[in-house]
From TrEMBL:
Ranges for domain Alcohol dehydrogenase-like N-terminal: 30-89
MF annotations from Gene Ontology: oxidoreductase activity
Top-level taxonomy: Bacteria, Bacillati, Bacillota, Bacilli, Bacillales
Keywords, sorted A to Z: Oxidoreductase
Pfam family, one: ADH_N
Entry superkingdom: Bacteria
Entries under Gene3D superfamilies matching the protein: Medium-chain alcohol dehydrogenases, catalytic domain, NAD(P)-binding Rossmann-like Domain
Name listed for the protein in its UniProt record: Alcohol dehydrogenase-like N-terminal domain-containing protein
Length: 298
């Protein structure tokens, strides 16, 4: 393969505006070259699009290997991860992705790539990263495959529904509370899972958690504004979660392969990279939950 690879990418230039940029890159024979087939659009992507700056602008995708090696065969489908999955406590990105048509990944970053089963419909693997992070949160709180619990989920978006899909399959009783429709105080929930990152919303629901219950914060809240005294008085266990580990990704792949998670009801598909802006507009209008853009075949 030619040692020069031309990559086209969408790059933010100001809030709500990006340009398509072509750049030539010098690649090595040891680099893994991936033709990107699918981009995912999530709330983090939209936040970066809206503000014009941020690290999350194109970080969930599926691609096909064009230049492989002993670990990744040519023609296999892969999902690149942006986050560190090597049990590190550092909040770091393993590899910068983006809305690009090709990726080249050096050997030092091979551990950020996961092979998925070959399928004619790989769309359901686009949000593998999100699912793995949810599974990680459930595992560290011993909630993965537990049953018969009363669980309150704060939020009603994609992540909240992933939690619900996994937990309800184990016969747990799930209740959602959102800004549109919040529940009254009851004090009957064993577990409260926050997917909003809003301390005001968390504080409002602390009385819904029984004494010695669990509050799982999936997002990163501001603890300066959290009612830690009430958490202390009720002896609520407070647990944070971040990213995921390699074993969580493997579990997530198995969940998707065995059709335990139904992504179809959450995904709106667009055909062609020219629909990237349209997908962001639809996200802003809340007419989609998650977008998947098919950008071409090999």
């Amino acid at each position: 393969m030619n040692n020069i690879l031309t990559i086209t990418s969408a790059e933010m230039v100001s809030p709500m505006k990006f340009n398509w940029i072509k750049r030539e890159h010098q690649i090595e024979n040891s680099d893994l070259i991936i033709k990107v087939l699918l981009w995912g659009i999530c709330s983090s992507d939209y936040k970066t699009f809206k503000e014009g700056d941020g690290r999350y602008f194109g970080h969930e995708m599926v691609g096909k290997v064009l230049q492989g090696n002993e670990y990744f065969k040519v023609g296999s489908l892969v999902v690149p991860f942006h986050s560190n999955v090597n049990n590190s406590n550092k909040e770091e990105f393993n590899y910068e992705l983006g809305f690009k048509d090709y990726l080249y990944i050096p050997p030092s970053k091979y551990d950020s790539i996961f092979t998925i089963p070959n399928t004619n419909v790989p769309d359901k693997y686009v949000f593998l990263d999100s699912l793995a992070c949810v599974i990680h949160a459930l595992k560290i709180t011993d909630l993965y495959k537990t049953s018969n619990l009363n669980i309150l989920i704060l939020g009603e978006g994609f992540i909240a529904n992933l939690f619900a899909d996994i937990l309800s399959s184990e016969k747990n009783r799930i209740t959602f509370s959102s800004r549109k429709k919040s529940i009254k105080h009851s004090g009957n929930f064993d577990i409260c899972i926050d997917t909003t990152g809003s301390n005001h919303f968390i504080n409002f629901h602390l009385d819904n958690i029984r004494n010695n219950g669990l509050l799982l914060c999936f997002c990163k809240p501001d603890t300066d504004n959290m009612d830690l005294n009430k958490i202390r008085l009720k002896e609520i266990k407070l647990q944070y979660s971040r990213f995921c580990k390699r074993e969580d990704v493997i579990t997530a792949i198995e969940q998707i392969l065995n059709n335990r998670i139904k992504f179809d009801k959450y995904i709106t598909t667009y055909n062609g990279e020219e629909y990237l802006r349209k997908a962001f507009e639809d996200f802003a209008n809340k007419s989609i939950i998650r977008g998947v853009i098919r950008i071409g075949e090999d």
